[in-house]
Design brief:
Blueprint: H1 8-17, H2 23-35, H3 40-51, H4 60-73, H5 76-88, H6 95-107, H7 111-119, H8 126-138, H9 142-154, H10 161-174, H11 177-189, H12 196-208, H13 212-221, H14 227-239, H15 243-255, H16 262-275, H17 278-290, H18 297-309, H19 313-322, H20 328-340, H21 344-356, H22 363-376, H23 379-393, H24 399-411, H25 415-424, H26 431-444, H27 447-457, H28 462-474, H29 478-491, E1 500-505, E2 508-513, E3 516-518
Antiparallel strand pairs: 1-2, 2-3
Amino acid sequence: MYSVNGDLGSSRTLFDLSYNRDTVSWNTMIMGYAHGDKPEEAFQLFGKMVSDDYGGSPNQITMVALLCACSKLKRMDLGKWVHDYINICKFNINLILRTAIVDMYAKCGCLNTARRIFDEIPDKNVVSWNVMISGYVRGGYPSEAMASFAEMQASGVRPNGTTMLILFSVCAQLRDLNLAQRAFDYVHKNMIKFSLNLQNASIDMYAKCGDIEAARVVFNEMPEKDRISWTSMITGYVKFSQFDEALSLFREMQVANVKPDEVTLVSLLSLSAEMGAMELGRWIHVFMDRNSVKPGVCLNTALISMYSKCGVVEQAIEVFNKMPVKNSHSWTAIISGLAINGRAEQALSLFEDMRREGVKPDEITFVAILTACTHAGLVNEGHRYFRSMTKSYGIEPKVEHYACMVDLLGRAGLLREARDIIEVMPMEPSASVLGSLLSSCRILGNVEMGEELINKYFGDSSEAYVNLSNLYAEAERWGDVERVREVMKGLGRRERMAGGSLLEVNGGVHEFLCGKIQP
């Protein structure tokens, strides 16, 4: 009873005091550990089981429990040992045990072996198919998961609610709205119970597939909502930059007396950071303190990012310094925050602290470091850090890193070096890379290089004419500006859409566009 209720301590005490331990009691304890927080204890107990004078004999259920422990521990070596033990002891490998073996290999990342054993199962049921399809989804192979789903239907096995949960996840991975709609319709046409879990998954699926309106329809029609429902919908709005809707829904969530969890708060802090809404961010921080929310690494990192992007870097530093546990994302967040707020020397110093702590930087960390070098004009340091990416950490520079280097060299007036970087890039230069060098050409009055870049990379596009016009205007070559504009008119090219921004004013978020204000 205690083991079933999760009280393994009390259960173990009674178990150890018992002198009449049969196979059922051993299996109950081993299964409790396998599904609990100490799966390694399942193997220690199994060792006692096979050597105990009063013990029972291991059976298929014992093996299923051990395979479950291997899955939780991600220990392929132990899993193979259990599989070999099953064969050596000549257990009757029934459907449940075969499925558990497939599940173990899939969760330990050995999908080929999992599929081979799965294909050998003569009487596959819906659980077997779900395990295999889920393994493909977990391993990042959504296309294989869909192919297996089609095989499942062709074999005559009817999908259940768990199958559809997995399928919704596949649609979300593929970002395939058409497939998502078909999966959603399949649930209703085949009278599969549209459980709360399925409803929550459909919100997430529609949002990730780009149809936030469909996600909201599902949300509105839910007779019962839990914290996951609210969080999924708010997160969807944040990802779509629909900040007003996200805030409005969060207020509704509070009225409904549903307490936000860490995922909700991370989404809201992300929203605050994107909008520069300091008051909202501070309110969330106060909410956490008043409700005794103990922030984990992810939530603290979100606080650092929010304060940094809102320009309150001292508060970001305070949060960082108080963190009992830090990971690479935490270090990157504070380094990036210092860099974008013009505190390059401090950012580089923290990066060295990060290395001394043995925390390995990732590609985002190096974007932050190169940004710091750019703001401080540290050309030599920028070159050194750029080279160390590959040499010291095996990180291949991406377009963002090349953009930082081009910006660094351009701002330092080293236009030819910046152009050389673009010439040797292993990928096509992005708009940010070219725009950075063009901006430097305008500022430094190097019209010739600017013309070369535009002619080479922009061709006869509208962007080419806009960039040429801006280049000539900066150099006060008004005749050339007029000539370019006349050419644009003759070609029927439209002007670009007016710019705008979101600002927090008196607690409310407003969109400011060129020529008007949108509340």
